[in-house]
């Protein structure tokens, strides 16, 4: 259905743009790489993840949206409206969670019995992912801070390379999971894949929010090692979720990993208000999507 493809394309533009600063903000802000090159690498990461692993989310699409195209369109439109509003008012709503909530709302409205086992797995993963991210990031950063570095110059060189590698990996996992989820909804034809890939490029270069003050900066000022470990833990959690066909919000995992990194520095003041605000939005995102679709369908 052409309308589904169009709205999926528009959502990909917003998703790619909204996440580009989180993916490459560190390497741009630190002057490791100029903005154009960093965004180009980000876009390539999105497309590579989508084309190579996006198909892993097909199971999630089949379980959550087994409806006729006209009904699937309601879920896409609801998610598009919610995420568009959130995008422009800078409210951290998760598209992935809103879309899953929209699918559940559609099931309730149409009287369709969703696969309870799969929904349970998704909910458990949404609860477990931030906990794993916080714990893993805490331990990883604590170990890094206690390591002794014999060759300080080699260590400094590695520190400069690591954020670039993790930025590429983060873009890849987001392309595989969130963009892959949208791509699987729109269809797997070659034309669809090309259009979704083009949307990733457009969003990255023309709708990216630049180097904004992120939640990590609101919590505490991050070092290169903190940024590296937080992105790495977050990307690993999203990658594992992708392999198990679980739609996962990279905002959820990254924010949790940032919190874990901050907690590992016991003497550092951490501002929990931004994190708590985002947690509230995690809870509200699927509920808003569910209510919106139920009313729209």
From TrEMBL:
What are the TM regions of this chain, as residue ranges?
32-52, 73-106, 118-140, 161-182, 194-212, 224-246, 275-296
List the GO molecular function terms. phosphate transmembrane transporter activity
Report how it sits in the membrane. Answer: Multi-pass membrane protein
Q: State where the protein is found.
A: Membrane
Entry-linked InterPro entries: Phos_transporter
Q: Which Gene Ontology BP annotations are present?
A: phosphate ion transmembrane transport
Keywords noted in UniProt: Membrane, Phosphate transport, Transmembrane, Transmembrane helix, Transport
Function recorded in the entry:
Potential transporter for phosphate.
Name the family: Belongs to the inorganic phosphate transporter (PiT) (TC 2.A.20) family.
| Protein name per the record | Hypothetical membrane protein
